[in-house]
Amino acid sequence: MQGSEPTTGSGAPSGLEALLVAQLSEAAIFADRDGVIRLWNDSAVAIFGFSREEALGRSLDLIIPERLRPAHWQGYHRAIARGATQHGRRSAITRALTGTGETIYVDMSFAVICDSHGGALGSLAIAREATERYRQDKALRERLATLEQAAADRAGS
């Protein structure tokens, strides 16, 4: 579907902006103030496994693991009220659900999108799949902890 424009709700990008969003290698997801998905690009389909038809008009709960939802919604509503996220431009690795029910890790960055008067319209998330990187980092941390413990044991004997 390369080159196709994303299906969007009101206030979504058009023209060149829509083409850029549609062709990103990262997932682009825009949710309105209530957390309802209004934009879901091709990469979101590929990463999360939900078609546009399955995602558009649905709550972000579609991709948020159940046990993470209370914290997510608390942060989401706070960001919408403030007009900015607490994370600034930093990305974070978090868990997400796929269409098959699998939990994956995604590297996400968020921005609250505001109108010309500063009123929050919703939130844009840019995500890339990070499951393998997360697993490799975890294995390295575990190996380092094992080596540190072995060194401490040697020093203590």
From TrEMBL:
Residues 90-142 form the PAC domain. InterPro entries: PAS, PAS-assoc_C, PAS-like_dom_sf, PAS_4. SUPFAM superfamilies: PYP-like sensor domain (PAS domain). It comes from the Bacteria. Residues 20-83 form the PAS domain. SMART domains: PAS. CDD domains: PAS. This is PAS domain-containing protein. It comes from Oryzomicrobium terrae.
